[in-house]
From TrEMBL:
It comes from the Eukaryota. Its main location: membrane. CDD domains: ST7. Belongs to the ST7 family. Residues 87-108 are annotated as: Disordered. It is a multi-pass membrane protein. It holds the Pfam family ST7. The keyword Transmembrane applies. This is Suppression of tumorigenicity 7.
């Protein structure tokens, strides 16, 4: 039998009756609170409001920069493992682990940054924009990626054997544009260097015609180097690397010459040059020349040839792009858009051709949901970056910048897009967790797009639109509530003092009642 506890002349059974020590403690705390003045409550509520306001500002800044709540991230990353939490997304059996690993691998590959096939000329277009507006259209990250591309495509290990190539190898690593241009002129004083002409055409030429003239000189020098290295490519790894470099240089020059013809209005000539280039170097798909060809064919309104190119490249085994998906949607929309009416379609239902067009639009929107707002001019366009992220805002800008005119040319195409594109999201209620026709939308696009796009004057499109985290709303409410209490206590100290005493008087009674019932 358990002994009884004797306190103040009363015996208590500790197994049945709660010890009154807790009541004494509550009474002491209540007496302490009764001695506090209204000034203390003003200071307390004011300090609480200030602290919660600082937390709110920090949470909002962190959310705008990184797209997630700092408190939630810390709790999930650090506190949850300490409390023994298990990640519900981890696979529970080996069968699902393989599928999720493949999905994660696909997600990582989709977050890869690609060279923009239709990138503008830095001197003749990007720099002209800077001169007129005073804004920098390219970010440092984007230009740094271009420098890495140039070093990969235009240099090789044997460049130090040729003085002009050795100078250009250093020039591609130079950050200062004027130093790069000076190095290119220095290389040309030694010999006709194809890569030096490329650099001058890209960065020093202020017009497309001047760039085309320099690229023609580069073509003459590049073809000579290519023929010489082609004969020696089997003599060793060094010659093979040199031939690979010369091949990249020649393909780049011909592609840019075709783009010059397209920009100068000689579209048929550009199409011929692109077709010849694709036949001569069919394995160099890294340049995505077919996307340049699609845009030129759309300009000629040669839709049969566009369909033929799509039949070759819109394959399940090949990486998709916004150009592929939205061009396929445009062709199917073209067959029905001129007679499409939402009211008529709601009465009689969609025909087979209309259903195919709507499904193609849904497919394109699922691949890149940022494009429709640019095509429908719900969001302003900027100059496209030199690199894009597939399924991201950067790819949407690059596509809409060149293809908006083609959608406008097809009567009713934009109207059909306007009426149907939002229906895609009804099929994919939670796009980050699952996909319908493609893999789930990767979560890494926003971070990469913020590095590629000039966020100073462009608001990066985010999909899906992130809602404010709970802790931001909670700290906002806490800040507002404590600030209101501080203001009321300062303005009406007697009234708030009576209210505080009334609240305090309820605590011991409620606590004693709950302990007694327990």
């Amino acid at each position: 039998m358990a002994p009884y506890t004797h306190i103040n002349g009363t015996f208590y059974d500790p197994l049945c009756t709660p010890c009154p020590c807790l009541f004494f403690l509550v009474s002491a705390v209540s007496m302490f609170l009764n001695t506090l003045t209204p000034k203390f409550y003003v200071a307390l509520t004011g300090t609480s409001s200030l602290i919660s306001g600082l937390i709110l500002i920090f949470e909002w800044w962190y959310f705008r920069k990184y797209g997630t709540s700092f408190i939630e991230q810390v709790s999930v990353s650090h506190l949850r493992p300490l409390l023994g939490g298990v990640d519900s997304s981890s696979p529970t059996n080996p069968n699902t682990s393989n599928g999720e690993a493949d999905s994660n691998r696909q997600s990582v590959s989709e977050c890869k940054v690609w060279r923009n096939p239709l990138n503008l000329f830095r001197g003749a277009e990007y720099n002209r924009y800077t001169w007129v507006t005073g804004r920098e259209p390219l970010t440092y990250y984007d230009m740094n990626l271009s420098a890495q591309d140039h070093q990969t495509f235009f240099t090789c290990d044997s460049d130090h054997l040729r003085p002009a190539d050795a100078i250009m190898q250093k020039a591609w690593r130079e950050r200062n544009p004027q130093a790069r241009i000076s190095a290119a002129h220095e290389a040309l004083e030694l010999e006709d260097c194809a890569t030096a002409y490329i650099l001058l055409a890209e960065e020093e030429a202020t017009t497309i015609m001047e760039a085309e003239r320099l690229f023609k000189q580069a073509l003459k020098a590049g073809e000579g180097c290519y023929r010489r290295s082609q004969q020696l490519q089997h003599h060793g790894t060094q010659y093979e690397a040199q031939h690979r470099r010369d091949t990249n240089v020649l393909v780049y020059i011909k592609r840019r010459l075709a783009m010059c013809s397209r920009k100068l209005g000689r579209t048929r000539e550009a199409v011929k040059m692109m077709r010849d280039l694709m036949k001569e170097f069919p394995l160099l798909s890294m340049f995505n020349i077919h996307e340049n060809l699609l845009e030129s064919l759309l300009e000629l309104q040669n839709y049969a040839d566009v369909q033929a190119v799509l039949a070759k490249y819109d394959d399940i085994s090949l990486p998709k792009s916004a150009t592929i998906c939205y061009t396929a949607a445009l062709l199917k929309a073209r067959a029905v858009s001129d007679k499409f009416s939402p009211e008529a379609a709601s009465r009689r239902g969609l025909s087979t051709a209309e259903m195919n067009a709507v499904e193609a639009i849904h497919r394109a929107v699922e691949f890149n949901p940022h494009v429709p707002k640019y095509l429908l001019e719900m969001k302003s366009l900027i100059l496209p970056p030199e690199h894009i992220l597939k399924r991201g805002d950067s790819e949407a800008i690059a596509y809409a910048f060149f293809h908006l005119q083609h959608w406008k040319r097809v009567e009713g195409a934009l109207n059909l897009l306007h009426c149907t594109w939002e229906g895609t999201f009804r099929m994919i209620p939670y796009p980050l967790e699952k996909g319908h026709l493609f893999y789930p939308y990767p979560i890494c696009t926003e971070t990469a797009d913020r590095e590629l796009l000039p966020t100073v004057f462009h608001e990066v499109s985010v999909y899906p639109k992130k809602e404010l985290p709970f802790f931001i709303l909670f700290t906002a409410g806490l800040c507002s509530f404590t600030a209101m209490l501080a203001l009321l206590t300062h303005q009406f100290p007697e009234l708030m003092g009576v209210f505080a005493k009334a609240v305090r008087s309820l605590w011991p009674a409620q606590l004693q009642s709950s302990l007694t019932h327990s």
